């Protein structure tokens, strides 16, 4: 039986959700996001002796989080770290491209941003096709990425996969039979740099835990954020 640890990216700066060009040297995470990734790496090091593979989406916030988790993991374990492989299949849907989706300036108001995003996601899952990627195409792309991670997990292997709230919960929704229209409810509950544990066996994928973040929300830590 194999294991996949799905980690949501740490807190990202506002430019991550913009359609404007981003300088090549722009950070993928805020300072808080960097610390969140580090804390998650240390937490996973308490539970896992080694990762046999590490993948992330190609978005800057996902790549930076994976690198941060692995670096912190390496602070605890002396063994070699796996090569960090970028798989764009784990990328999040493009928020600015959603029909009627939120604009970057709304990001400063979390409640307003979420309300507009949820409405846009409902239209998208219902079949609105005026975005760069339809919901069906998104499902196909992310499902293929999951299949590749399952192959890496194999028997007795432990895989680290870093993605985003939408992509992680889209997988959970499929596994649990949650209707597409209810999927955003799962996504908005995801904490930055939380982790979800999956077992991979002959019967497929089993969700063992979801959105674990006690290492971030403890009173003496206070690093838990949703955006």
Automatic annotation (TrEMBL):
Coiled coil: none annotated. Gene3D superfamilies: Phosphoglycerate mutase-like (3.40.50.1240). Pfam families: His_Phos_1. It comes from the Bacteria. This is Histidine phosphatase family protein. It comes from Gordonia phosphorivorans.
